[in-house]
Amino acid sequence: MSQYTILLGGELVRTPALDRQIAGSRIIAADSGIQHAHTLGLVPELWVGDFDSAPALLPPHLNSVPKRSFPVDKDSTDGELAVEIALEKGAIRLVLAGAFGGARTDHAFLHLALGLRLAEKGIDVLLTSGTQEGRPLSRGCSTFDYAKGTLFSILGFSDLAGLSVRGAKWELAAVNVPFGSSLTMSNEVLSQLTIELEQGCAMLLAHPLPEQGG
How many other C-beta atoms can be found within 10 angstroms of the C-beta atom of residue 21? Predict the structure, then answer.
């Protein structure tokens, strides 16, 4: 499987789960996302962007990462450009690390929408901050192995039809959820989480529990 991890400019916390999720990935940093490379102990193969928000000081081994520069006045964000380059290189799975939080709410929204658009094209996408994970929900049945007690919400980006949720504190059976409804906010995993969706565009947003040391 050709997996790329795109380092974005949002908040990122290194966790054991994140280390496993990006293991073996090829890495592309998008502008200020290069700062996460040091946190994760990685050296990207490419650094993409207009570099208007690049950190002023970086370790020497990161300053030498090959760059692909773009003008400040452009029609795509640095993150979207990094994703396009990864797809050109044959990526079929993407981890968007640093997709949430940070100073730009508009960028966080874009990353959610971009993740949904990529999933519609058949790309396996995970959005993560280390403490939050976003997984686009495909039509049909999907299962997730989150630990008991994990908090999650289903974010609807349209009206949802035939939504079923099993293995949760509040289960649903083939309900229709209007766009903008809070019905699917703040649920809790009890066993293997199963989500079925007949029609609509939605994303699972989970807050994985911290792993306990042995």
Answer: 17
Contact 170, 186 (CB under 8 A): no
**Site of tokens 């039809």:** 161
* Count of structural domains within the chain: 2
Q: What are the tens digits of pLDDT across the range 30-49?
A: 998 999 998 999 999 999 98
- Out of 131, 157, 177, a domain closes at 131
- In tens, the pLDDT along 56-110 reads 777 888 888 999 988 777 778 889 999 999 999 999 999 999 999 776 788 889 9
Identify the H or E element spanning 17.
helix 16-22
What is this structure's pTM? 0.92
How far is it, in rounded angstroms, from Cα 168 to Cα 162? 17
Examine residue 214 and state whether it is found in any structural domain, yes or no: no
Whether 201 contacts 158, CB under 8 Å: yes
Element (H, E) at 202: strand 202-207
Residue 192, domain member (yes or no):
yes
